[in-house]
Amino acid sequence: MTTRETVSARVSRRMDVSAERVFDAWLDPDKIRIWMSAALKTAGLAGDVRRVELDARPGGRFVFSDMRDEGEAVHWGSYLEMDRPHRLVFTWFTSENDERQNLSTVTLTLEPDNKGCVATIIHEMSAEWADYIDRVEGGWGRMLAQIDAIEGGA
């Protein structure tokens, strides 16, 4: 019997931007390029986003990539659920092995809060990545911070 253990990274941020604007920022290729580049730069990387390709519908796929010292870092997945502006669920892979295991799911939940919202990301992934939880949370947190800043929040 195969055990399919997972671990979760979780990050939450109060944003001064409406849930609709945050949700749309995840599905607009031009906006993705901007906030992803900014988030990468805050992580000390070049922020050289090369590919942003997506088919924004349930079952649609996406590919994002950026250039790093070791080469092109490619991230891809499929949209599993879209409930604008409350919930976006997608798979997130960085290797073919990750995709074969199919143990990487990201859930973005947006809850209205006055004129802004509270964004929460939960990334469930294979237990083999348990030592990387802090780094994963840092990455998602930087993405939310950049969306907040670029869309007009703090």
UniProtKB/TrEMBL annotation:
Residues 16-150 form the Activator of Hsp90 ATPase homologue 1/2-like C-terminal domain. It holds the Pfam family AHSA1. It comes from the Bacteria. InterPro entries: ASHA1/2-like_C, START-like_dom_sf. SUPFAM superfamilies: Bet v1-like (SSF55961). Belongs to the AHA1 family. This is SRPBCC domain-containing protein.
